[in-house]
Design goal:
Aldehyde Dehydrogenase, Chain A, domain 1, Aldehyde Dehydrogenase, Chain A, domain 2, NADP, seven-stranded mixed beta sheet, 525 residues, 42% helix, six-stranded mixed beta sheet
Length: 525
């Protein structure tokens, strides 16, 4: 395993930026702060206010005060803000790439994926929001006699609770369609990674978004989660399934809608006609991007037996050749885990599996010589039921390999999970890949890819089946969920129902005849 020590680069390089970003958070008690840790070194990075429930309520009030005027602006004007934001993100990307690496520990190439994602999302909704949100004519019950229009109004205040693993993408990309739809946003980034989201909000305001429309509060979810739910008109949550269940109950009590992306134990299928070298390279990306701290990363790989030896050899070789580093440049293939807690989870899963009979073909150990939370990308075989790594989400650079006799066995074993977020299929036959993919119980499936194609295709919905979540982000679903739909129907000449001058029995006979005739007319719904 190649390794590079972190370069000599002090957190003081970004100190002024961190201090400026922290001032975007309003807290009544100016003496309470939370220290943020540099994930590469374990040393202090910066600090942000420790907000309270009262701060959440005050932030919600400020956001609502701005939202009404924002919603009254033409959609095109709101969309123009997103395009200017898109340009600013590209121009200032080095700033946020440093922030992402320092507060999260990820390799720069994986941090850049967040920059791409934010820009793709902003550009997409800037160009599509008006079409999605404009009033639409719908077919009336009495054809020409009933005129029906569908309208979409902003929910008002959207609450967003985001995790630490993709602090820019998940910290702001879900807010982008919400604000262009006319909403205000009350957001809480994870208390370990607040700076990337704060940076994005500052750029949105520079791009012309009204100051205060997006309010960020900083602090632990255990203290601020419930107050946010109590203030919001809609909730977007990304996190663990266990926390998601709790959040969903609270949202249900308030009768507010919610959308959630939750956990995964994602599977990759290597079919018997796959290109082994391409599949092995794809598996490296699928399993070890962002050090495996990715809800849509792969933790299970099912390999057709005829390809087993060749695939395992190629995959192990490619994995052992990876470079681990905390460098603030593009030299690393993989960076650090986020924290001691995450390192311990990964260590426990691997040690438990090996103690119970699994074999580590690559990796399997921490690398404190590089940084306090580094762990080698790890490939396990002989993982079986009863081991922690078998069914539980590891959320780290650990993947288990399984030989399968047939395509049917691969599909069945992939589906034998409580989770269904993102799967992958490798084959030389695209039609076969789509056919197999359609049988997999996952919200997104990539054929001959890891995760990027489905995620980055923002015109298509993204989300999970089973315990992996409810609702969808991206596409039409990703913006209309932040609106209240309204139907306005206007009657002309004749009412719906029997007119006062007609006998009810005759009206019923006429309508019955009419329905029978209309059934045969194409285009009539």
């Amino acid at each position: 395993m190649n390794a590079l020590r972190s370069p000599e680069r002090s957190a003081r390089d970004v100190g002024p930026l961190l201090e400026r970003l922290a001032r975007h958070v309003d807290a009544a008690d100016g003496s309470r702060y939370r220290q943020i840790t540099n994930a590469m070194t374990g040393e202090p990075l910066g600090r942000v206010p420790h907000c309270s429930a009262a701060d959440v309520a005050a932030a919600a009030s400020r956001a609502r005060a701005v939202q009404r005027d924002w919603a009254a602006r033409p959609i095109g004007e709101r969309a123009a803000v997103l395009l200017r934001f898109h340009d600013l993100v590209l121009a200032r990307q080095d700033e946020v790439l440093d922030l992402l690496q320092l507060e999260n520990g990820k390799a720069r190439r994986h941090a850049f994926e967040e920059v791409i994602d934010v820009c793709l999302t902003a550009r997409y909704y800037a160009h599509t929001a008006e079409e999605y949100l404009k009033p639409k004519r719908r077919q009336g019950v009495q054809l020409v006699l009933t005129e029906v229009w569908e309208h979409h109004h902003p929910k008002g205040l959207v609450g967003i609770i985001s995790p630490w693993n993709y602090p820019l993408t998940l910290g702001i990309s879900d807010a982008i369609p919400a604000i262009v739809a006319g909403n205000a946003v009350l957001a809480k980034p994870d208390d370990r990674t607040p700076f990337s989201a704060l940076w994005a909000v500052s750029l949105l305001e520079e791009a012309g978004m009204p100051k205060g429309l997006v309010q960020l509060v900083t602090g632990p979810g255990s203290e601020l989660g419930t107050p946010i739910i109590e203030q919001a008109d809609f909730l977007m949550f990304t996190g663990s399934t266990s926390t998601g269940r709790h959040v969903a109950k609270q949202a249900a009590e308030r009768l507010i809608d919610c959308s959630m992306e939750l956990g995964g134990k994602n599977a990759l299928l290597v079919l018997d006609d796959a290109d082994v070298s391409r599949a092995a390279a794809g598996a490296v990306r699928a399993a070890f991007s962002n050090a495996g701290q990715l809800c849509i990363s792969i933790e299970r790989i099912y390999v057709a037996k005829p390809l087993w030896e060749d695939f395992v050899g190629a995959f192990v070789k490619a994995t052992k050749a990876m470079t681990l580093s905390g460098a603030l440049d593009y030299s690393a293939d993989m960076g650090s885990l986020i924290s001691e807690t995450q390192l311990q989870t990964v260590t426990d899963h691997v040690n438990d599996a090996v103690a119970k009979g699994a074999t580590a073909l690559a990796g399997g150990r921490a690398r404190p010589d590089i940084g306090p939370y580094f762990y080698e990308p790890t490939i396990l075989t002989d993982v079986r039921e009863g081991m922690d790594a078998f069914a539980d989400e590891t959320f780290g650079p650990v993947v288990s390999l399984y030989p399968v006799e047939s395509e049917r066995e691969a599909i069945d074993k992939a589906n034998d999970s409580d989770f269904g977020l993102n799967f992958a299929v490798w084959t030389n036959d695209a039609a076969r890949g789509r056919r197999v993919a359609a049988q997999l119980q996952a919200g997104t499936v990539n054929v001959n890819g890891a995760y990027a194609a489905a995620w980055a295709s923002v015109d298509a919905p993204m989300g999970g089946m089973k315990d992996s979540g409810i609702g969808r982000r991206h596409g039409e679903h990703g913006i209309l969920k932040y609106t209240e739909s309204q139907t306005i129907a206007t009657e002309r000449l004749l009412p719906v129902g029997a007119p006062t001058w007609a006998r009810a029995d005759r009206y019923a006979r006429v309508m019955t005849t009419g329905l029978r005739l209309l059934r045969r007319l194409p285009g009539v719904k």
